[in-house]
Amino acid sequence: MVASTKADAVPSAVAHRGFVEKINAEWHKSALQVFMVVVLAHWAEHLAQATQIYLLHWPIPAARGVIGLWVPWVIKSETLHYGYAVVMLIGIWMLRKGFQGRSHTWWMIAFGIQFWHHIEHLLLLGQATLGRNLFGSPVPTSIIQLWIPRVELHLFYNSIVFIPMVIGMYYHMFPPPEEEGTCACTCAWKRDSATACSV
Asked: How far is CA 45 from the centre of its chain?
């Protein structure tokens, strides 16, 4: 019988890290890239809808983005819209530990705004599910929608979530000198032997 070595007896802590720990360390760059593809695809739909309304002068019911032209029910599905809001919320939350310093501050600002955006979509979903609209409206209505029409409101919401996300990613990729070397991933572009982050 071969005696086990100390290395065999004590498995590496790194090997036993869970999914969340890995997406905030060695998988952080890839996880962020996948998340941003989802975010940008959603943005493209909103921008396509805005183009249809403001540049092509389509009536709002006909302006359904790109996917909505082929699958019309998608644009009207409160469940789908709420689902995306939750995916955004979960994605921002799960990736937060990979950010440090200024990048973390901006990333969490995006999380706070997205949390409220998710509440607004939850209100819309609740009204659509129960068949009872708030404020005597003929259609499901969110709180801020009382003052800002829905198309413009969701362009605004997506903007004010996306902007701090981009600022957070900028500081994450290009950390200030005092924060270099503090991350646990390979996202930062400033790489040399003195400042590289260890995974």
From this structure: 15
